[in-house]
Amino acid sequence: MREPSLLPVFGKLRVKAPPVAIAAPTMSTIIKSLVSRTREVLSAHGSLALKLSVVLWTVLVLAAVFFIAQA
């Protein structure tokens, strides 16, 4: 005689799985003010920040290539 499966068979019994509650992330007031300040700074100096990040990324890549070539 065949034994029944031990796996849940929700679909066959037309029983729905219980819904999973997902908690919404909460932000503190310090983080909210930090986010708003960061947006203000980037809106005022966005192009400068972009240029500096590109220069920094380029320097990091060149430094990595240099150290790999030395090994």
Q: What does this 3D model show about the protein?
A:
The protein has 71 residues and is mainly alpha-helical. The mean pLDDT is 79. The protein contains two helices and no strands.
Concise overview:
The protein contains two helices and no strands.
Q: Which helices and strands occur, and which strands form pairs?
A:
Blueprint: H1 10-13, H2 29-70
Gyration radius over CA: 27 Å
* Main β-sheet description: none
User: pLDDT below 50 for ≥5 consecutive residues: which ranges?
Assistant: none
Helix share bin: 55-70%
Tell me the span between the first and last alpha carbons.
Answer: 67 Å
SSE arrangement, N to C: HH
Class from helix and strand fractions:
mainly alpha
Number of strands: 0
Mean pLDDT: 79
Global geometry: flat
- Number of H/I helices: 2
Q: Which terms would index this structure?
A:
0% strand, 2 helices, mainly alpha, 71 residues
